[in-house]
User: Fold these one by one.
Assistant:
Number 1:
Amino acid sequence: MSKRFSPLVGLSWCVLLALFIAAVFSPQVAPHNPVRERLLDRLLPPVWAQDGDWQYFLGTDHLGRDVVSRMIYGSRVSLVVGFAAMAVGSALGIVLGVSAGYAGQRLDEVIMAVADIQLALPTILLAITMIAVLGPSFTNLVVVIGISGWVTYARIARAQVLSVREKEFVEASRAQGGGPLRIVCRHIFPNILSPLIVVATLDLARTIILESTLSFLGLGIQPPTPSWGGMLSDGREYLLSAWWIATFPGLALMLTALSFNRLGDWVRDLTDPRL
């Protein structure tokens, strides 16, 4: 077995494939309506426990809602917010990083100073403050999580541009009259894309966890829309009597983050010529 593709990588692909299928086909896959309350069926345990019901394979929560169905619909929230926030953060960071690396001097100093200021602030505290000011909504959540992660992209893009901008092919294009925008788009950006793809893959785990954290605190996706963070928040008061409410969403969140991280390591191994 090649070190570039291990059983862990295969397992990660399987987990993510199942996650994408659940997210895309949630109405067809989910056995129940995730927001419908059935108080007569509240706090039913998983099917293998005593008093478990095959109708609710992983049990029900304190309002009688099916845990499996809520997890399936919650995967849609996590993936949409994760990819959208990653897109916002990467776009902002790459533009600022490339601008800082290519322009240099004052613009570089200003952008890196702003990055240093943001790095000095705890990410979760910054996100909580911005959500508290803007208000909890899907758009605000994506923007806040995206802004919280632009620094990593900016620093990597800047470092890559600094190493590429003095190469012979860039100097040749400049000598032929190529403008800054043409040089950046046609010669510099394609040569710095590989490490940015790796960072984006790894950043997906961060955005998904941050979304769940904010939802857990009541500042993310608002009820009754199901989310993994919201399910963790609902289940924290029932950890001793109904452990399954919080345990299974927590496991799903952990497996998703680990799978994206392992996938990012695999992409790094594929794109790094030194490996």
Number 2:
Amino acid sequence: MVARFIYIADTHLGARPMGYQMQQGHPERIAEILQALEGFIGETGGIDFVLHGGDMVDAATEANIRSAADTFQLSVPVYLCLGNHDLTDERSLGMWQSLAPTFFPGGRPEFTIQAGPGAVHVVPNHWEAERPYFWGDRQDAQFSPDQLDWLRRAGAAATESVTVVATHCPALGLPPEQTGFDEAYHSPPPGFRESLVQPALDGRERGGAGPLVVLGAHNHMNMHVELEGADYVTASSLSEVPFECKLFEVSAGQVTMSTHSLGARLDFESQYDYDRTYVQGRPIDRAFSRATA
């Protein structure tokens, strides 16, 4: 059995323009970009779902969330890991749950998606301890004890041969080998990676388990780093040139990722910044395959 899903991120619907972008952004063209994605889904075949890694909207207003619920109606289910821009109002979570419930299986922001012989555990990080599911002006990515307990139970109960854990904040910064910078770029707070990964492993015997993939977004860049037996992946913004998505294929004991541009399917003019090719990444950042050792 093979399961296939598409990973996208940082569409910032409603932005005029995007406040942060690594390549030229076109959130105003998201309907056309999603139509191109539909074409890719149809030609690829066998896609089970689309997972959005967060920042679906640029601000959590009722109008933006209603627009997202309408715009992201695709031929396959779409699920959302809430990002910081999705949580700009203290009522954000309730608005998402009432206005766009299909994005959240089981009705909660933490959920598990079955992907054939694999499982995808979605757990959106918080940005401040005092106000969960809210982003003001702090970038202190963290998880609550309840979230970590949920992830620990999900990991302990897992019988699947491939485990994917998705949150919004990247678990690692982009390595200097990719960017040419002196140090890792856009790194998370200290201890963030460990706090995310360890609960997913608790209760499992990693010696007999299959690959572990940790998905992030937020940085608008493609990245893939293998570290201590896990593969860490982030995605560039679907709304930015060259409008890329990632295809994951999960089979027994194996996971494969590839990155695909939708730019050739779009007929509006856009400009690519060749001084920032590190955004698209090296070959290793764009594709990999991992199997149980």
Number 3:
Amino acid sequence: MNALRNPLHRTVPAALALVALALAGCAEKVTNVDAAYTAPEGRYTTDARLVVYPDLPITVETFKDLLPDGPDAGDSLVSSEPRFVAQGTLHGVIVDGTAATGYRVLRREANGGYAQLKDYVLSPVARFLDSHWELYAFADGAPSGFDPPSYVGRGVVSGTVTPLSPLTNVGQVLYPDTDPGIVYTANQTPPDTNITMSWQEVPGAAGYWIQIYQFMGNAEQQLLSAQPAPFVLSEVRNLFVGYVPAPASSYKLYEPGAQVLFQRGLLMDVEYFVRISAVDGAGELLAFTYGDYSYLRTSGWYQRYRLGAVVVRPTR
């Protein structure tokens, strides 16, 4: 059987292509930018944080499944290829704990001035009602050419922007070609549901975002969720979302040391995904947990990729 005719080669790239087209369609044309507009109206606050990152590839390996059935060391590797969601796109996530009910994203244009990236107000993609924090996401499918690419989020309060509107940090993509992974060092079968997470320190990190979740989508959606990013934003059930400032490189649930956006108790003998993401002082994603392998299977073939998280199962 020709590997190129494998159904896995048809369906997964098609899903990635649809996402890429959607992102490209979100790009806005910017004209008549005031080069002197370098100080957006509003007030910077640590309760509005912007994380930015480039579209990095997912490595997908295709294997011919030889007997015995299922992935094992005797199977034949047919191909290994990078898969982008939308190559060349820059992404951003705003983590907001202010009174803002929406966000506008400003981008520095080629002449140095700021202009609106989109002609609409962003709505939250995730709300944590207990803590009143929210997440907003955007994608820039056609970066302006300003070096380094720079963005700032400005909160909209009661439908308006004022001198008191919250501003995020200026997020800058300084190292778009770097692709390091975080090494998770904690026990993945801990004897306690109040798990301790630990990882190797990332040079230059200002802190680490932690997300513990269960993925609720299908196999193809799970592959898309493996993209290097600080959070998985769709098809997930969150159990913990929080931030640990450097130089800490570990955190135990329910103990001091983290800013907790959301938390629910874990259960014994249940699998959870743990994603750790390092960010620097400019808001750039430096590294994250590529984590454990997952598989897309069909008759006689399978594809292997990294989950973007480690699998942790509290076990008696």
Number 4:
Amino acid sequence: MSLRLALALVLLAAPAAYSQQRGATSAQATVERAARVYAKIRTLRATFSQTITNPLTRSTATSRGEILQRVPGELSVRFTEPAGDRIVSDGKALWVYLPSSTPGQVIKTHSDPGGGPAPDIVSWFLNDPTRRYAMADGGAAVVDGHATRVVHLVPRDSTLPFTKATVWVDDDDALLRQVETTDFNGVVRRITILTLVPNAAVDPRAFEFRVPKGVRVVDHM
């Protein structure tokens, strides 16, 4: 190979290598900024829509609801579609009550993939993200009127319940506006945040779960 041809190949390759490095750096900076913002949030109130696509059954399910959270460990997810479904963590136990799909029972457990009583999805993405993920910039996108930066995540942490994820981080306030995960069976879960109020006033009673009359408790503790 001539020296001139070798130099030409280096010059052609350099922009692509630089672009990949710049993209990774940009993605990391975006996620780390979001992590700093969420570290200051003690309570949260949000409404959401969720779509779950299962390639094995060729089905898609949608739901909506409200999330209340109080750090650490307290969580309330109240579904409006399907109405009556609830997920509650009182800081000691996690209650999963889904009468729309499994009527007559509630599951009670202590553990979750994030290591605590509450299935804190945000912590999966923003707790020590540089160590836990390889990141790639996915460009700009608009989510429900919010300008966001898209970041693709591939877990380095095998305890996480998905093989890949994408987060949409708000350009203005660095809050997550949308998240998407793909699990080990190829099931894709996309959660879009419709409204979000950080450090909102929350009623402590929202984190209490009372077993409905006639409902059996399946204890996994």
